[in-house]
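Worked example 2:
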Amino acid sequence: MPSRPSVSVCMAAYNGADHIQEQLDSILAELAPGDEVIVVDDGSTDGTREILASLDDPRVRVVFNEKNLGYVRNFEKALHLSTGDVVMLSDQDDIWIPGRVETLLAGLEHADAAVGNCEHFGGTPGYFQRLRVDPRFSSRHARNLLGILIGYRLHWGSAMAFSRSLLDDALPFPAVMTESHDQWLAMLANVRRSVTYLAANTVRHRLHDDNLTPKKPRSVRKILRARGEFIAELAVAMARTRASSSSLTPRATSGAPHRTETAAVVSAYNPDDTLPTHVESLLSQVDNVVVVDDGSPLDVSTVLAKVETLGATVIRLEQNSGIAAALNAGIRRARQDWDPAWIMTMDQDSRLTADYVSKALASVIEAGVRPEFVGAVSPESHNRKPLPTLPVREHLEILDPMQSGTMYRAEAFDRVGYFDERLFIDCVDSDFNARLRNAGYRIAIGKDVDLIHSLGKSRPMRIFGWDAHLGTKKLFVYEHQPFRVYYITRNILTIAKRYALRQPGWVARRVLMEAESNAVRLVFGPRRLASVIAIARGATDFAAGRLGRIPERTARSLTAPPRTSSPSSGTEGSDL
């Protein structure tokens, strides 16, 4: 079959020793030399692992889970590992009908998904086994979606095939999903209005006690719970389809001859003579650099001219617009001029260590998922101090990577949007991280990637006039101007409200971190009364839904200049 698309078959295995070899034989008889079978064993204890370990076919790739994930997440893992143009799901105890691959590929000629029927054997079919799909369903997308939600339009994953394009939108599975990954795929195909239903049987489905449950329609309670999950999944499917469609809109590239690999965007405010040195260092690791001056009130023309002489592009904003607006201006310019695959954002006072970029990009391949699902790469440490981590499914991620030193996949901005300029400064990276995770992106940890980052002004932490120590280590409190405390308070509350339902664990830890910082600030920091006022005003403006630049009246009450663009992060900040 020389001209057909490559096929990936994804099988989730668990205690299937009785039938898995027969199933694999029927699959391999259908596949071409360039196809693949991904089998993920979910901790079998009955001899399945031994059967899989003994397989001797270059088309079969076997992965053994260290812990049981459950069948839905096990299938998801197999899908992440697939590389073919077309993907087919497989149970471990069925038998493929000869001609299945050709039948399903024909159904995919004008659609992103093809759905066939099952020939059941080995037992008496129950209620669900008697449901079948019909070619007339192919144009009835709204009715199909309604049927999935109600439960009368069943799709057998073992009888389906779908394109790589649909898989890109399907992964990762919605967090709410606990069952019926095949219905999710069918739902997404119908939302995209791109599905072909086939009358043909494409698989012999073996019936036994384990897969005949339930043998009749479920209780009302279970049905309502499942339908609630389906409604939530439908909302995710619609959102992802819209995002995918918008990302297909061509970007103007100003005649760029080819795509570059990397670019860096540096936000600057009153930069000093060290900026050209830092830009020169950046250019030794990335292809292009954009420096955005965020309305500096001082005359920095000489410094910016030196930066341009080095080959960097300089953007001069007429007024102070905030870190989010400055970064967005630089990112858009970089994408317009060079169309880079990766964009790293930087504070003017952060430094890269040796091989920073090459190590970060290598970590994309080592992230444990298909590279295109990695939306960002964060350093593993700041100033050799490991950053706190967050468990995300079976992976670890940095809890809240700050934008400085983080590399972002360029296409991610098309899918989730740019930095939220309404937040102005502080927590703009926290908000973006949350959107990446909501969209299903992984934030990979750059192995051995360390960022040299200024922590800003500090003073000894004192208790009754004595310097506080932790063991022999002297403790310091890092200062934030009161106007920064205002932004941090307002914005962290805004982010908590936005993402509490989707990411409750992350939100709880972020809010706790800021609460601890405020406690230290109010006990040991300078200008404690002004900080109290800043916290109160930030909370008040959050309650009123007020975003954007700090109100002038509030800024004056904090007796701080309304200079509000500093390259700040969600977790650690620096004053310029």
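Residues 262-453 form a domain with the Spore Coat Polysaccharide Biosynthesis Protein SpsA; Chain A fold (CATH 3.90.550.10). The chain has 18 helices and 25 strands.
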